[in-house]
Amino acid sequence: MDAELNSLIDAVRAAAAQGRTLRVRGGGSKDFWGQSLTGEVLDTRAYRGIVSYEPSELVVTARCGTPLAELEAALAEKGQCLAFEPPHFGPGATVGGMVAAGLSGPARATAGAVRDYVLGARFINGLGEHLTFGGQVMKNVAGYDVSRLMAGSWGTLGLITEVSLKVLPVAPAEATLMIAGLAQGPALDLLHRWGGQPLPLNASAWVRDTTAQPVADYLFVRLRGAVAAVQSATVKMSADAAALGAQVQTMDNAEAEQDWRASTEQALTFFDTPSPDACLWRLSVPQTAPVLDLPYPTYVEWQGAQRWLWAPASAAVTLRALAQKVGGHATLFRASAAHAATDKAVGVNTPLEPVQQRIQQQLQKQFDPKGVFATGRLHLL
Questions:
Q1: Phi/psi of residue 330, each to 5°?
Q2: Closest CA to 48 of 79, 19, 69
Q3: Is 303 exposed, middle or buried (0-12, 13-18, 19+ CB in 10 A)?
Q4: Is 101 in contact with 152 (CB distance < 8 Å)?
């Protein structure tokens, strides 16, 4: 693999010397995201493979171009997993892209985010230097945690070549409750009550099914943990929901797994574009934030911390004001199919505060002084 690695290093050095911009790309499954996608594509897929895997130590190291599906399959063989459930958004998703995107699935609120599982990383900075940060154990983290900084950087700080990740055993027991008849407010209240109790609550999702006759509200909660804990929590949580007049059903695990995977991959009916000019917005707010007064269909995850909705780009000011009022922010996650370039003129991300903006600019200057990775993907208006 030395040839493939040297090829990547040489490409970055040449771009730095010639003043060119490079866009790091693995499988391209997340090309839809970001303010812009300028620059020459630098394909990472040739630099692939699992470097080391120690199931007893709960750590795996893989190269950037390794297919994410290949890594997950290797972990599954040993009864282990990536607890943050990263979305693929396509068959070509890679390990490097997973870390660079920093996106997590349904278990994020309890299991943690991608960055929480990054133990160490190697990457090529904007000068073509191959740097190593962190290691393969938690205690190696000291000083400024650069390896975790790469999570969610979207390839704007450097090219991740290799990453070491903490993995976890698959939970011995799992159950998903489907609770019908709870509006968003009561559902959030119930989730917050459960969140303050020693229950194995792993994931949640609330949605209003407008295709049902009559329209129906559903809250889904997933429990994971020891067998006795899951069984006990199932009984208690079912009783709590029933006391509010809701109907509770324990789903078949195989069916529930398909639904949670569809939620992760945005393959549920909710994520079907409702109109040509609708954009998918992601509102990140505190879990305890109240129901937001919005005239748009909403899908609520992470015990209230992540709220998806379909709205036109013209609603940007309103959405961001509402999110900021409760201590959060709004992101234009997917632009409309009709006019993506125009939609993004409102800004994909909520503008940072001046201090945060200065910190980000300084980080980019330190890691990429010649702007090799300045694709504009994280550009903030």
A1: -120, 140
A2: 69
A3: buried
A4: yes
Q: Which domains does the chain have, with CATH numbers?
A: 2-169 (3.30.465.10), 173-264 (3.30.70.2190), 273-346 (3.30.70)
Distance CA 274, CA 215 (A): 17
Q: Which helix (H) or strand (E) holds 105?
A: none
Give CA angle at 175 (225, 89), nearest 5°.
95
The span from the CA of 330 to the CA of 333, in Å, is 9
Q: In whole angstroms, give the CA distance from residue 44 to residue 373.
A: 14
Which two tokens mark 24? 């790091």
pTM of this prediction exceeds 0.90: yes
Strand ranges for the chain from DSSP E: 22-25, 40-43, 50-54, 59-63, 80-81, 118-124, 130-134, 159-166, 168-169, 173-180, 201-209, 216-225, 247-250, 279-284, 298-301, 306-311, 329-334
Strand 80-81 to strand 168-169: parallel, antiparallel, or no bridges (unpaired)?
antiparallel
Length of the chain: 381
Query: Rounded distance, CA 373 to CA 377, Å?
Result: 9
Rounded CA separation 194/179 (Å): 14
Q: Quote the mean pLDDT of the chain.
A: 94
* For range 193-209, the mean pLDDT: 96
Crossing angle for the helix pair 227-242 and 184-195, nearest 10 degrees? 140
Residue whose structure tokens are 């154990």: 137
Q: Which helix (H) or strand (E) holds 54?
A: strand 50-54
Tokens of 238: 């079912």
The string of DSSP codes covering 161-206 is EEEEEE-EEPPSEEEEEEEES--HHHHHHHHHHHHTSS--EEEEEE
Q: How far apart are CA 65 and CA 43, in angstroms?
A: 9
Check whether 381 has a pLDDT greater than 50: no
CA atoms within 13 A on the CB side of 370: 17
Dmax (CA) of the chain: 68
Q: DSSP for 204-234?
A: EEEEEETTSSS-EEEEEEEEEE-HHHHHHHH
Contact 125, 367 (CB under 8 A): yes
Give strand pairing partners of 207.
Answer: 218, 299
Contacts of 327 (CB under 8 A, 6+ apart): 285, 286, 289
The predicted structure's pLDDT at residue 211: 79
- Distance (Å, whole) CA 94 – CA 26: 6
